[in-house]
């Protein structure tokens, strides 16, 4: 079944307006990306309006129809570019206005005498440029999530740019060889490609936005709200994998278990606001001293843990002692008073007796209990004898 050009125009107009409506609806439910999605909604609505003007350019606008409809369509492309660039914190307002003015001058100077050539060939150049810039913004993606949908959008906008480059520079050559029939076929191909572009790109950008929101929700579900460290869920999910990999390659991995000393007394005497400040201060200290490879988590009220890949006992001990000394040297405000808090630390290194994260945490807890019983504000490490005794006890319980 052959679809005529007017029907294809109606399809493009309908899909663009539907895409605009979906972008606008999405912006209402995603405050973080509200401005970007609203700009994209305006861009697709403008493209739809431009296509509507193009389909009736002669009947409604007379000789000025091609120029007006082309400038409206170009405005839509530039608004879409601006919306995509806003994801990366950039805008193209000045350059967009400059390109529109340049194209308007082109129509004013050359459009009267060579209207068909400007409509078929020259008008494709700024559209190709806008699509290329959109593809490059998606490729840079320094403010966008690194998800599959973004890569699809890069390819899609790149193909769209190449299509219009071919229309601007290859089509004139083909028309000179094969005659006017090529132009009619080109118009139909342009509309078919336009239908696909007007459907797939908005869907891809919406998918990218939703994947970004989903990723943020997932991160929040694994993050402690107060300290912004990981929570128990993240610690066990990532920790088990790290221990398994390090045991497979026979690399050391150590765990530090932390418990703030007399924290209940601080809360009871100075209030939860001061207690929260102490917790945040400790989180900042341990984050600064353990490095980027460490897996950090708040696993209880005043209990924290740090899994240190590539650390043997001696190296982990130095890290723990540095954390303890730095934290003890800090002071915290409480109704004009300055209070100091300390931390007790238990250290365990993964070995034959600690083959899982649960075993390693249990071993570090034993050392932590010993540090607390000795008065706190100190680091204790688990002895191999204690680990062996614990392992034998576990074996007897299984029997």
Automatic annotation (TrEMBL):
Record domain GGDEF: where: 251-384
Name of protein: diguanylate cyclase
Database matches in Pfam families: GGDEF
PROSITE patterns per UniProt: GGDEF
Transmembrane segments: 6-25, 37-56, 62-80, 92-112, 118-139, 151-169
Keywords per UniProt: Membrane, Transmembrane, Transmembrane helix
Coiled coil regions, renumbered to chain: none
A single cellular component GO annotation: plasma membrane
Molecular-function GO terms, alphabetical: diguanylate cyclase activity
InterPro entries xref list: Diguanylate_Cyclase (IPR050469), GGDEF_dom (IPR000160), Nucleotide_cyclase (IPR029787), Rev_trsase/Diguanyl_cyclase (IPR043128)
